[in-house]
Design a protein that fits this description.
- By secondary structure, the protein is mainly alpha-helical.
- The protein has one domain (about 35-175).
- The chain is about 75% helix and about 0% strand.
- It contains 6 helices and no strands.
- Helix 5 (about 145-155) runs antiparallel to helix 6.
- It starts with a helix and ends with a helix.
Length: about 180
């Protein structure tokens, strides 16, 4: 009889313990993911946006910037490559292949065949993906949407992209939710 009374109590204790363990594991995973997102946002995405604002990048094309500014962007991007998603890395690869040697002082290397117009297109696409992901991270971290604001300024000043700016901004914020 005593055993019959202990079994339900033990089952309840075991189920409660397993439930607590599962809930704690889920919370730890969530906290670690949030910490990684926050680190990425603060180490790369905020400095990238800040550099865009400080250099007023929306007023000029990337190829028109002084070499010092181009190097600053290049180094920020390459130093923080670990924080980037696949969409950004696709553009970083092109950006690096065609500009990396020149900007880091390799005067003997082949810098690729990027014309200034193509370099601007590559950087525009790279910046758009960075700002898109920054907006996603800001949304997840309950931070101000600096990436979205910078994207409005940046895309709004690109003559070939002006017509679809509002739709593109709505699309990139929705992409975060997938």
């Amino acid at each position: 009889m005593l055993i019959n009374a202990l079994i339900p109590g033990l089952l309840i204790a075991i189920v409660t313990m397993l439930g607590n363990y599962a809930a704690n594991r889920k919370q730890i995973k969530h906290d670690n993911l949030r910490a990684a997102k926050k680190e990425a946002y603060e180490a790369f995405f905020l400095p990238f946006i800040s550099l865009m604002y400080s250099e007023s990048i929306w007023d000029l094309n990337f190829s028109e910037f002084p070499e010092k500014t181009q190097v600053e962007f290049y180094r920020l991007i390459m130093k923080n490559i670990r924080y980037m998603n696949d969409e950004i890395l696709d553009w970083v690869d092109i950006f690096h292949d065609h500009l990396g040697g020149k900007l880091i002082g390799d005067k003997t290397g082949d810098y690729g065949t990027l014309t200034p117009e193509r370099l601007n297109e590559v950087f525009d696409s790279l910046a758009e993906e960075v700002l898109r992901y920054a907006a996603c991270l800001a949304d997840d971290l309950y931070q101000p949407m600096l990436g979205e604001h910078a994207m409005k300024l940046y895309l709004g000043n690109l003559p070939d992209k002006k017509s679809g700016v509002a739709a593109r901004i709505r699309r990139f914020v929705r992409r975060c939710k997938r």
